[in-house]
Amino acid sequence: MRTVTIGSNDAGQRLDRFMAKFFPAMPQSLIYKSIRKKCVRANGKHIKESYQLRDGDILSFYIRDEFFSAPEPEQAFRSVTPKLDIVYEDENLLLVNKPAGLVVHEDESNTQNTLIAQIQSYLYRKGEYAPEQENTFAPALCNRIDRNTEGIVLAAKNAQTLRILNQKIKDREIHKYYLCLAFGKFSKPAGEERAYLRKDESKKQVSISDTPRAGYKTIVTRYRVLGYREGISLVEIDLVTGRTHQIRAHMAHMGHPLVGDGKYGKNAENKRAGRTRQALCAYRLAFDFTTDAGILSYLNGREFQVSRVSFAEGYWNQKTKIKG
Known about the structure:
Elements: E1 2-5, H1 15-22, H2 28-36, E2 40-42, E3 45-46, E4 58-61, E5 86-89, E6 93-98, H3 115-126, E7 140-141, E8 150-156, H4 159-170, E9 174-183, E10 190-200, E11 205-209, E12 217-229, E13 232-239, H5 246-253, H6 267-273, E14 280-287, E15 303-305
Parallel strand pairs: 8-14
Antiparallel strand pairs: 1-4, 2-3, 2-4, 5-6, 6-8, 7-8, 9-13, 9-14, 10-11, 10-12, 12-13, 14-15
């Protein structure tokens, strides 16, 4: 028999979900069998799989030792030196301006220097993250952007914040605005475009249709032209839906591929423009809670913006707010 004390970052979740993370080598069927056979207790009492863990609970596991020999948790952050451009930080979360070229999570190339590794390293060095004191939680990202896209990424310092932010993003109570450079002059200064998108996992690419088709999901993209010069438009994008590669693919489908986008744009045009990465930045974020936000209610109504978007210089004066 072994015991585990539940901390604040494990509290609030169901017993079966906690066990799935705490015992990664244990088959799901065995997890439920262990609970059903009363091999798991909370504070000395038998419990069900739906039991909601509470801070301070002492769980007793009458389970074979082999399942406690789980692999060491990911420690890549220990060898990473953080170089973060922090837009905002408090005791619950971080807003970080990710540079183009940095991946948010480890990818197929097993890159160790990722945004999340840098964030965990930063919090570890500050004394705000102690992995040896956590059962299942680690600071995590709430949203992600492509390697070659720059801009604001949300990171949660605790499990309660992570749950709230994930729900708020799902409920569209957090608004993300993008700046991009797009080829061509738009016929209208602003608009809302609807189309349908299908993701091809094998090619890591998406395709767009003007009409509904099997396997395609609805996308809605709002845009506003902020400037134009020499065949290139500076555009603000408000994503009503947030599908994979939505901005890049939808803009290209509209006849205005992003400058520097090698996947959905034209390499000859990109070469003439002198860009090898898409000119796209998640530059502004607004909290607009319409339902209870718990410990994050103080963020309601607040907006945050990166201090500089290099590719936008010359198209608009960034000292002038561009809200409408």
